[in-house]
Amino acid sequence: MTPLVSGVALALWGLALGAVIGAVIGLVGHAMAGGRRDFSSVGGLRAGRYHLLAEPGAAAEARRLLGEAGVTRAA
């Protein structure tokens, strides 16, 4: 019974110590960054231009489908 109690106690102490050390490291990192985040969120991503490769017979249909999708012809 004693080894089981010792193992549980050791696990709980390890969990508590890990939480404290993690909180301290997080606090120091947050303070060093001045509270700013090191990433920026992006709401969406859209290509600025598209290159269309299609067989000659399918090129017109591909252009039409891109036009329906709101992609305009640049050149």
Describe the structure.
By secondary structure, the chain is mainly α. The chain has a domain at 1-35. It is built from two helices and no strands. The chain has helices at 2-32, 59-68. The longest helix is centred in the first third of the chain and has 31 residues, at 2-32. The model has no long low-confidence stretch (mean pLDDT 83).
Q: Summary?
A:
With 75 residues, the protein is mainly α. The protein is built from two helices and no strands.
For the record, give the distance between the C-alpha atoms at the N and C termini, rounded to a whole number.
Answer: 80 Å
Task: Count all strands and give the number.
Answer: 0
Number of helices: 2
* Overall radius of gyration: 29 Å
Structural class: mainly alpha
The ordered string of helix (H) and strand (E) elements is HH
Residue runs with pLDDT of under 50 for 5 or more positions: none
Average pLDDT value? 83
Tell me the helix content: 40-55%
Largest sheet: none
Strand content: under 5%
Query: What shape does the CA trace take?
Result: elongated
Reconstruct the topology from this structure.
Elements: H1 2-32, H2 59-68
List keywords for this structure.
75 residues, 55% helix, mainly alpha, 2 helices, elongated
